[in-house]
Design a protein that fits this description.
Helices cover 40% and strands 13% of the residues. It has helices at residues 26-37, 59-67, 83-97, 121-149, 172-175, 179-198, 218-224, 236-246, 260-267; strands at 17-21, 41-46, 73-77, 103-106, 152-157, 204-210, 257-259. The chain has 286 residues and is α/β, with parallel strands linked by helices. Strand 2 (41-46), helix 2 (59-67) and strand 3 form a beta-alpha-beta unit. The protein has one domain (17-267): Rossmann fold. The longest helix is centred in the middle third of the chain and has 29 residues, at 121-149. The chain has a seven-stranded parallel β-sheet with strand order 3-2-1-4-5-6-7, sandwiched between helices.
Length: 286
């Protein structure tokens, strides 16, 4: 099926292939939609193939939205906490999409909020498997091909919780429970920087991006929505715009931990809809 571009629609990813994890709902699904709208063939990865017991969204629903743009779509049901599942994602994506992957977006995350002082080992292991080991495993599987071709993009979704607190500690109810999650994101930031340094000069770009404010995806709204003021929220389109920019950024833009709204403001990037057409009015936080 051939889909004609809409007036003003960006098409930066025509002929490229991408993997997006955590794409059954929320930010991952939105990033996948935007990449498909700009011409990419996209493999979407998540545990929820058809229906989640408590949250809306599934790989099947995301795939329907992506196919409207005419490109290839591969749905891969996998548990990113499971190393065996992780190992089959890249081969299945490349086979289904018909070639090597150009862009990897590690969006999936395990957010199990509880105080550190009695945080169970099993939950710690799941958090670091999904938030640290899975992104690194997928990147390591793709990097040889990217280096050989002389270009590639890895974008890891991070969080402001990675930053350490300073005394006096006035964290609020939510702050006391995000230490383990934040530690996993801090590890992801450092590994991203290390990979970028090792790959400098190869044409492979590796970056993280985090929201400046909360993006109220389905899962985030359930977890933290009641704790936030309007000025602590940014739009889905803003977060996606910053992320997708890093999926096509120049070779010298690598190794950094970016903040979504800061990146948009610094570069003067206009915000587009998830269909890659200009918004009538810029999406603003609050």
């Amino acid at each position: 099926m051939t889909v004609d571009a809409r007036p003003g629609q960006l098409r930066r990813f025509a002929g490229r292939r991408a993997i997006v994890t955590g794409a059954s709902r929320g930010i991952g699904a939105a990033i996948a939609r935007r990449l498909a709208a700009e011409g990419a063939d996209v493999a979407i990865v998540a545990r929820t193939a058809e229906r989640h017991p408590t949250l809306p969204g599934s790989l099947a629903e995301t795939a329907v939205a992506l196919r409207e743009h005419g490109g290839k779509v591969a749905s891969i049901t996998a548990d990113l906490a499971n190393a065996t599942d992780r190992a089959r994602i890249v081969p299945e994506a490349e086979q289904a999409l018909g070639g090597p992957i150009d862009v990897l977006v590690n969006n999936a995350a395990a957010a199990i909020y509880a105080p550190v002082r009695d945080y169970p080992l099993r939950r710690r292991m799941i958090t670091f498997e999904v938030n640290v080991h899975a992104p690194l495993d997928l990147a390591q599987a793709l990097l040889p091909g990217m280096v050989e071709r002389g270009e590639g993009w890895v974008v890891n979704l991070s969080s402001s919780t990675a930053k350490p607190w300073q005394p006096p500690f006035d964290l609020g109810a939510l702050g006391t429970t995000i230490g383990v999650y934040g530690a996993s994101k801090a590890a992801l930031n450092r590994l991203t920087n290390a990979l970028a340094a090792e790959l400098w000069g190869t044409g492979v770009r590796v970056n993280t991006v985090e929201p400046r404010a909360a993006v109220l995806s389905e899962g985030a709204d359930v977890l933290v929505g009641a704790h936030l003021r309007p000025d602590q929220i940014e739009s889905m389109e803003q977060m996606v715009e910053a992320t997708v920019y890093l999926c096509a950024c120049p070779p010298e833009q690598t190794g950094a931990s970016h903040v979504s709204l800061d990146l948009l403001e610094t570069l003067g990037l206009p915000v587009h809809s998830l269909d890659a057409t200009p918004l009538a009015e810029p999406a603003t936080s609050g």
